[in-house]
Design brief:
Layout: H1 4-15, H2 29-39, H3 41-61, E1 67-79, E2 87-103, H4 105-172, H5 178-213, E3 219-220, H6 235-245, H7 247-267, E4 273-285, E5 291-305, H8 313-380, H9 385-419, H10 425-434, E6 440-441
Antiparallel strand pairs: 1-2, 2-4, 3-6, 4-5
Helix pairs in contact: 2-4, 3-4, 4-5, 4-7, 4-9, 6-8, 7-8, 8-9
Length: about 450
């Protein structure tokens, strides 16, 4: 009789998972998003553009800060005068100069322009994050579309394989015609070819996803059950939200304001500039490089600079600033129209997609009943195998259409939120929760 230790060992082994029996963990959408944020080159470039804008702002501010300069010079002089003997001597001069701008309207306006450009760059980063989230979800759904097609083809192929085996036995017993078996064989070969195409489509979609995330994905969770997000608010509310909240439009608004300040800065180049100066000089020669006793000179004063003519530079800068302002205004209007169009199109797509989900669900139910009826008819000999295979094919097509309808509806919601400026990380977390079906291996 086995001992208690043997029984306990057997019980523990029964609960130890065997190698290859565990289900691989699926990569969640939010994990892929974080990976994309960390590695996507376009986003990193845009973040560097923010740092560049900050540096340009600091450069503009430097024009209004104190300017301190120290100069030192040494020379070897050979003096020859008409009535004085020649003299060879060394000379030195050291000077410290401080300049503080007091009135410089052009620089103030330029600082304001660069500050607005910093805000513009930050909004462009926010817009790129939104675009990246939408691109990620689109490519995840593309992978699931291709994967769903592969699952449907494989399921239909498995069903036809069982029918072939059954028909082969019936032909051997002379209970079915050989032509029925040949029809089933031909349909099976067609499904094998479609399976190869579907598998290749999955691999291509995975490569697109890897381009976005920078990582290889082999397991994803499909949409779970029948639950999908609801479409809230009417189309006009979404358009209003898009115009008010879109980071792309916010960046375009900042661009217009920045160009207005830049125009004011260019015009202010005509204005006088006032600065305070202070200096201290030690030297042992005079201005004519004559030997002299060392001396110190300290001075404090103000400097007024009145621009009169600079070869047309200021007028050219004003014309350039005017043209840049028109460009910024035109780009804003173009972005506004595009956002309104995309929001309206996405809302209509989502609304139609929600109705399509219900329609395809009813189609699946109807095709399941038709398939059962055809199977009974085939068993009774009143339905040909061609009719049965066709009905079965329509059933699996209906199931695939239902899955794609859910994906397309989700695409519409993602596009709607993208252009309405409502696709932040919290929204992506909400979408990620719907991808909670059984993990599916894709390679």
């Amino acid at each position: 009789m086995p001992s208690i230790a043997v029984w306990l060992a057997a019980l523990l082994l029964a609960f130890v998972p065997r190698e290859g029996a565990t289900q691989p963990a699926a990569t969640s959408v939010i994990e892929l998003y974080h990976q994309a944020l960390a590695t996507h080159p376009a986003l990193r470039a845009q973040q560097a553009a923010v740092e560049r804008a900050v540096a340009r702002h600091d450069l503009a501010r430097s024009r209004l800060r104190p300017q301190v300069a120290a100069t030192m010079s040494a020379a070897r002089n050979d003096f020859r005068g008409e009535s004085e003997p020649p003299d060879r001597y060394g000379s030195h001069r050291h000077a410290l100069t401080v300049r503080q701008p007091l009135i410089d309207v052009a620089s103030w306006r330029q600082i304001e322009a660069e500050s607005l450009r910093v805000g513009q760059s930050e909004q462009e980063v926010a817009a790129m994050r939104t675009d990246l989230a939408a691109e990620l979800l689109e490519r995840v759904l593309a992978v699931l579309d291709a994967s769903e097609e592969l699952v449907v083809v494989q399921a239909e192929k498995e069903a036809v394989r069982g029918q072939r085996s059954r028909l082969r036995r019936m032909v051997e017993r002379q209970m079915a015609r050989i032509t029925d078996l040949l029809e089933a064989d031909a349909h099976y070969v067609t499904l094998e070819a479609r399976e190869i195409e579907a598998r290749n489509a999955v691999l291509v979609a995975l490569e697109d996803l890897r381009e976005t995330t920078g990582v290889e994905v082999s397991v994803l969770s499909p949409l779970a059950g029948t639950e999908v997000p609801e479409l809230t608010d009417d189309i006009d509310e979404w358009v209003r939200r898009g115009i008010e909240q879109s980071p792309r439009l916010a960046a375009a608004r900042r661009a217009i304001e920045a160009e207005q300040r830049a125009l004011a800065s260019a015009r202010a180049e005509h204005f006088p500039k006032l600065a305070m100066t202070a200096s201290k000089t030690w030297a042992d020669t005079d201005s004519d490089s004559r030997r002299n006793q060392p001396f110190n000179v300290a001075s404090v004063g103000v400097q007024l600079n009145v621009p009169i003519y600079e070869g047309g530079r200021v007028d050219a800068a004003v014309r350039e600033a005017l043209a840049r302002q028109v460009v910024a205004q035109s780009q804003f209007e173009q972005s506004r129209r595009e956002i309104e169009r995309e929001v309206r199109s996405a809302w209509l797509q989502a609304q139609g997609g929600r109705l399509r989900i219900d329609a395809t669900r009813q189609s699946v139910a109807a095709q399941e009943l038709a398939r059962e009826a055809q199977q009974r008819g085939f068993d009774l000999g009143v339905v040909t195998v061609v009719d049965l295979l066709e009905t079965q094919h329509r059933l699996y097509r209906a199931r695939g259409e239902h899955a794609r309808a859910r994906h397309d509806y989700l695409r519409g919601l993602v596009t709607l939120r993208r252009y309405a400026g409502a696709l932040a990380e919290s929204d992506l977390t909400m979408f990620s929760a719907f991808f909670s079906g059984p993990p599916r291996e894709l390679r």
